[in-house]
Write a structure and sequence with these properties.
Layout lengths: L5 H13 L2 H8 L3 H15 L4 E4 L2 E4 L1 H29 L4 E7 L1 H6 L1 H13 L8 E7 L2 H9 L5 E4 L8 E15 L14 H6 L2 E4 L4 H12 L10 E2 L2 H8 L5 E5 L4 H6 L3 E3 L7 E9 L6 H13 L2
Parallel strand pairs: 3-4, 3-5, 7-8, 7-9
Antiparallel strand pairs: 1-2, 5-11, 6-9, 6-10, 6-11
Helix pairs in contact: 1-2, 1-3, 1-4, 2-3, 6-12
Family: Belongs to the LysR transcriptional regulatory family.
Keywords: DNA-binding, Transcription, Transcription regulation
GO molecular function: DNA-binding transcription factor activity; transcription cis-regulatory region binding
């Protein structure tokens, strides 16, 4: 089999993240025919059908979704390699702090935490070694694995379970909300939706391993229901939100991720009954082993901010 290029993997990940070839093309600044041709070349290289194409649009196949998850790991490893080589070339004296975070936390909370951390360090006239920061974005399961494997020193996750070998602390709280397009029948619904309504509705879900998916499944099970096994799975919150505007889809996502859409009325929150969709957002580090000074400072600052 021919060697797969990183550019091809970037196309596949962009489709998974954006939800379609056309959306991926816009996010990458390419034309749709260019992205389509690149995906077809990747399909020939791998010998797999990665995308289902129809007049209504394009979505990843089951093989495509699996390949996109592996592609993310390859791209992350490539980025880590380049950062490490750059450090060897002469960032001498600069500490390199790698932080991993699940998508919602990475987009809505980590930038503020890192900004405050940098300001605190720069305001110290007797500053120690400068620190360059790299942020890895994965689902909660991927974040925990990155910390366990030593790829990242500090992780932030949304899931309810923490893997053995990690210590954790709660740093924030969050709530999942049920959202639909303004034209969806539930947007005008007077009665709250129940676990049964969600289990029998047109849900679109995040992929296995995401904190949002884990929280939703546990809430549904606690209410005595179960989610069907054949529900669509999308690799990002952005893809879930995009799917809501395509038909009768229902999404369950973090309130942090849809605050702007709810404020502008482009999505509508649907009240729920009998569902506990609250969750704790956690900081995780390895149980054994010392943190670098830069990581210790970040952990201490986030801990203080969460009090």
């Amino acid at each position: 089999m021919a060697r797969t290029s990183l550019t091809s993997l970037e196309l596949l990940v962009a489709i998974d993240t954006s939800g379609s070839i056309s959306a991926a093309a816009r996010s990458l600044g390419h034309s749709q025919p260019t992205v389509s041709a690149g995906v077809r070349r990747l399909e020939r290289t791998l010998g797999l059908r990665l995308v289902d194409r129809s007049p209504r649009g394009s979505v990843l196949t089951e093989d495509g979704t699996a390949a996109a998850a592996w592609a993310r790991d390859v791209l992350t490893a490539s980025d880590a390699f380049e950062a490490s080589v750059s450090a060897l070339r002469g960032q001498g004296g600069t500490a390199h702090l790698v932080v991993a975070a699940s998508l919602t936390i990475a987009e809505h909370l980590v930038p503020g935490w890192l900004g405050a951390w940098r300001r605190r360090r720069s305001s110290d006239a007797t500053e120690r070694t400068p620190a360059a920061v790299e942020l890895i974005v994965r689902n909660s399961a991927g974040v925990m694995r990155a910390v366990l494997d030593g790829e990242a020193e500090v992780g932030f996750v949304e899931g309810t379970e923490v893997l053995r070998g990690l210590r954790m602390r709660t740093v924030a709280r969050d709530e999942l909300v049920v959202v639909v397009d303004p034209e969806h029948p539930w947007a005008r619904r007077r009665r709250p939706v129940t676990a049964r309504d969600l289990a029998t509705g047109s849900l679109v879900l995040r992929e296995k391993g995401s904190g949002s998916r884990d929280t939703l499944e546990r809430a549904i099970e606690a209410a005595g229901e179960a989610l069907p096994a054949d529900l669509p799975q999308l690799g990002s919150t952005a893809a879930v939100k995009a799917a809501l505007h395509e038909g009768d889809a229902v999404g369950v996502v973090s309130d942090l991720a849809v605050a702007a859409e709810l404020a502008h009325g482009t999505l509508v929150r649907v009240p729920t009954d009998g569902l506990d969709l609250g969750r704790r957002l956690r900081l995780v580090t390895r149980t054994h082993g010392d943190l670098s000074p830069a990581a210790r400072e970040l952990v201490a600052m986030v801990g203080q901010a969460s009090r």
